[in-house]
Amino acid sequence: ISAFGLQLATLDIREHADAHHEVLAQFYQRVGEGDYLALAREARTELLTRELSGARPLSTADTPLSEAARATFSVFTTVREAMHRFGPDAVETYVVSMTKGIDDLLAAVVLAREAGLVDVAGPDHEPARARLGFVPLLESIAELDSAGELLDRLLAVPGYRRLVRARGDVQEVMLGYSDSNKEGGIASSLWAIHRAQRSLRDVAARHGVRLLLFHGRGGTVGRGGGPTHEAIMAQPFGTLDGAIKVTEQGEVISEKYTLPAMARENLELTLAAVLQSTLLHTQPRQPAEELARWDAAMATVAGAAHDGYRELVEDPDLARYFWAVTPTELLGAMNIGSRPSRRPNSDAGLGALRAIPWVFGWTQSRQILPGWYGVGTGLAAARAAGLGPVLAEMHHRWHFFGTFLSNVELMLAKTDLSIAARYVQTLVPPELHPIFEKITIEYRRSVAEVLAVTGAGQLLDAQPALRRTLAVRNTYLEPLHHLQLSLLKLHRASGGGPAGSLDHDLERALLTTINGIAAGMRNTG
C-alpha cells in the first residue's frame, strides 16, 4: 500500500435508477419545480438535460432529505471524500441498475454534479470535469433490444457528451445476463445480448466514442457463465477494443484463481482471447448474406424458446412449485450473497426473487431450468421451418451459436430428473406435479434437438473426459441429495419455512448439504 496506494482496490458503485429520482424529487420540491416524479420520461430528460448544462445548485449542505434519500446522496459525497483521501483511482465507475431511459443515467449525473464530482457548465472551450464514469446497466430483454437507441440519445446530449470527452471518449455499458435470463430464458437472453453488442458498437463508432462493454456474468451458464475464453471469442466483431470488463463471482474466483498455476492459466486464456478478438476480429468472419441467414434462424430459435419459457414462468402455480421443490428459503441463512435473495418489500412470488437464488434453487434440485429450458422448443421450431441444415451449419461455423449450444449441452448433462423426481415426490403437493411433467417433456425435447444439431449419440460425446468427471461427481452428490431431502422434509414438518426458525443442528446440517451440492455441481451462483 505504501508503494502503490489503493489503486488495486478500485471500486465500482452501483445503485438502482429509482433511488436517484427519489432524491431529485426532494431537491426539485425545495426549489419550487413541482412534482418531479409525476413527469413523463421525456419531460424528465428535458429537465435534466437543461440542469446538466446549467450552473444553479439544487441543494445546500443542510437541504433536508428523507432517510433513504440522504443515504443515496451520501454515497456521492463519500465517493468525493474517498477520492480526496486515496486519489482519483479509488472509485472509477457509477453503475445505474435497471436503466430504462436516458433520464435514469442523467439523474445520477446531476446528483454527482451536486456532490462536486462532475462539472459541465463551463465555457465550451474549457474541458468538462468528470471524476466518475457513468454506466447504464441494461438488464431486461426490452432494454437490451433498445440498447443502441438509448446510447445514441445519451451521446446526443451535449452536456453528457462533454463528460464522456473528459473521460477520454470512453463510454462503458454494462450488460445484465441474470435478469434477462430469468425474464426470457437462456436463448432469448443471450441472443438479445449479442444483438445489443452489435448495435452499441455501431452507435459508439458513429459518435467517435470507444465502447467498453462490462459483462455482468455469473458463475452458472444461466447467468452468463461458462468458459471465459470461448465466451470472449464468441462476441460480435469489433466490440472489443483492447479491453473487456467482466464480473467474477466469489465461487468462480475460488475455482479459477486459488492455485497460482490455475490463476496464471485463466488469466493467460482471458488475455489471449481479448488480444485475438481486438487484433483479428475487427471484421465479420462470414459474408453478410450468410450472417443474415444465420441471424434469421437464430431469431426463430430465440422467439420460440422465449414463448415456451414464458408459458412455464407465467403458470400461476410455478411460484408454489419452486418454493416447494427447492431449499431456496434457506439461502438467506448461508450469508454467501452480496444482496438479500428477494428485493425489498416483496412477497414469496417469483417476480421479486433475485436471479441468483432463482438459479441456485433450480440447481440444488437438479432441474437447472435457467440453463436450458425453452431451447428444445426453439430448435424444434427452427427445424419445423426447414432450417435443420442451417442449424448444423451454424453449429460448425458460427462461434456464437457453437458456444451457446455447448453451454446448453453441459447444463442438460448436469440436469438429473431422476433426482429431481424424488424432490417432487417428497416435497411437492400432488396438484403441482403437472409442472414437473412439463419440465420433463421440455428436457427430453431439448436433449433430442441438441443431439440432432450436433450429430452426437449422447450428451458430451465430444468431451468424454468431462462426461466421466460428471459421472464421478454424481456418485458423491446422490447421497447428499437424499440427506437434503430428508432434512428438508423434517424442517418443513416442524413448521419451518421462509419465515420459520430452525433448530441450530438442523440448520447446520441442511446448510452443509446445500454447500456440498453447490460444490459438487460447480458454477452454481
Distance separating the two termini: 32 Å
Total beta strand runs: 8
Q: How would a textbook summarize the main sheet?
A: 6 strands, parallel
Chain oligomer state = single chain
Q: What's the overall geometry?
A: globular
Helix content class: 55-70%
Order of helices and strands: EHHHEHEEEHHHEHHEHEHHHHHHHHHHHH
What is the average of the pLDDT values? Answer: 88
Q: In DSSP terms, counting alpha (H) and pi (I) runs of 4 or more, how many helices?
A: 22
What's the Cα radius of gyration? 24 Å
The proportion of strand residues reads 5-15%
In order across it, which strands form the biggest sheet?
A: 1-2-5-6-7-8
**Would you identify the regions where 5 or more consecutive residues have pLDDT less than 50?**
338-347
Structural class: alpha/beta
Could you please describe the fold and organization of this structure?
- The chain has 525 residues and is α/β, with parallel strands linked by helices.
- Helices cover 58% and strands 7% of the residues.
- The protein has helices at residues 17-30, 41-53, 67-86, 102-114, 141-145, 147-155, 158-166, 178-184, 186-206, 228-233, 250-257, 260-280, 288-313, 318-325, 355-364, 375-384, 388-397, 399-414, 417-427, 433-454, 464-493, 504-521, and strands at residues 11-16, 91-97, 118-119, 129-130, 133-138, 170-176, 210-216, 245-246.
- Helix 8 (178-184) crosses helix 9.
- The protein starts with 10 loop residues before the first strand and ends with a helix.
- The model is unreliable at 338-347 (pLDDT under 50).
